[in-house]
Amino acid sequence: MSENNKEITVYNYLDYLNKKILMGSKCKKCGELFAPPRRLCSACSSTDVEWVKMSGKGTLAAYSCIGVGSKFFVDKGYSMKRPYCFSVVKLDEGPMISGQLVGVDATKPESIKIGTPLKVNFLETEVTGDEPRIDLGFEPA
Amino acid sequence: MGNLSRKIALVGAGMSKFGQHFPTKRNPDLWIDAWINAVENVDNGIEPKDVDACYVGNFTADLFNHQGHLGPNMANLVGLTPKPAPRFEGACASSGIALREALLAIASGVHDVIAVCGVETMSEVPTTMVTDALSAAADTTYEYPAGATFPGLYAAIASAHFHEYGTTPEDLMRVGIKNHENGKENPYAQMQQTIKEIMESKKARLISQGQEAPEWKDEIDFLSSSANPYIASPLRLFDCSLITDGAACLFLAAEDVAKKFTDTPIWITGTGQGSAALSLHDRNSLTSFIATREASRQAYQMSGLSPNDIQIAEVHDCFTIAEILAMEDLGFYEKGKAAEAVKNGESKRDGALPINTSGGLKSKGHPVGATGAAQAVEIFKQMRGKAERNRQVKINVERALTHNLGGSGGTCVVTIYQK
Ligand SMILES: [Zn+2]
Q: The pTM is what?
């Protein structure tokens, strides 16, 4: 990866995300993996940590179909009648990460099963007067 | 970890009525209500000159009321100017932290008597803004863009608990039914109605509107119906605590001065606090709170007690699933076994381990920053045999516990009380 010397910061992680790349980080000393990435290894305190690209594949660990959403999601048109699915995903590489789960029927939460294989779906969100931003999403694989 | 180097007593405790008070009452009014109520509960009386400092717990008057810097403000209203008046923030554990820090300050010898204030007015802003302000206690960078809300995070925890232990929506409903039965007996509670009474009044209203009478067999049937919509599946409206305004006040005193205020002090013998990553995805377990396990480990060790010694507890049931998790993480029950205990009635007022005799956050209400202090108010009353109406437990309570969570388990404070 050509930009691999970029500092591991929230900003640079989100910058990758906006280019539809899901990045994590790996501690070169103890091997711990982080996604979202961390610059300081919270397992062994090493700062010898490098960017790693995540496969975006994983399984569903926890979820909720949310009817009373946050303002951000209410503004996107979600409501009690049109819930969205918040999910915690266990990535195949090990770490867990949060994302909106799409491609499922959020009006039928019982139809969604923990353990379902998922793949990343980079969701474009229109922000008025700006470039669309990318939020992390997943869908059934 | 060391011990408290002085014995410390809870010598007075009181609270405002919990409910939606805005605009008739706001933080200053609710705090004065709580202060007056607590002063009345000090056997030999207490005056501002007896108090060395005012420790204030509040989550976010900044977002709810556009008011920061609450410490000196609250202290001034009750005549404590110019004494120290710090404010503590740990989301819904804010006044649990204020209580703990007051204990540590008295133990240090710097102060002898501290007034602990918990206060929050949530109903000033519309529900969407309450939801947004509360979600600020979760991770804003990664969880919020994924759609996380406060109920949504606990709902995700519930989905994992259901999957791992076979817990069911009905198990959660039984927690709510039990807490409403207690809240009915608490004159300070926001909802002083049982689920059965709520069901009957809903039925009567539908009939009076000329609609077909719903055929709800019992409370579980009612709670499983569309009359109880999903807020965040699997959590429905009646799995969630309320939007509440309220305040609570505690008076803590070092052993050498406590006898001036009362002949029957409640000793605080254990305090513990734990933390966890804000994001659920950054934790090793989705079905157990490491902050609760750590806070309770410290508090048990300090008091020399074990989970089996606890006779009653007030636990942080911001959502019904949270009470199940607390019962397990505090060591009262093995993982996956709490739901069965609730079903057997063990956590009812006359059960083996009464939990949330106050009605809990579910029925008493949850003015987030006031909750930790309000839990101690219930323990104070129960241990002195002074709980109102029909909710005094029949046993003589010698050992009790409070469990106060912040956010989705990022902070936990556990406190142990003994006679
Ligand atoms: Zn490392």
A: 0.97
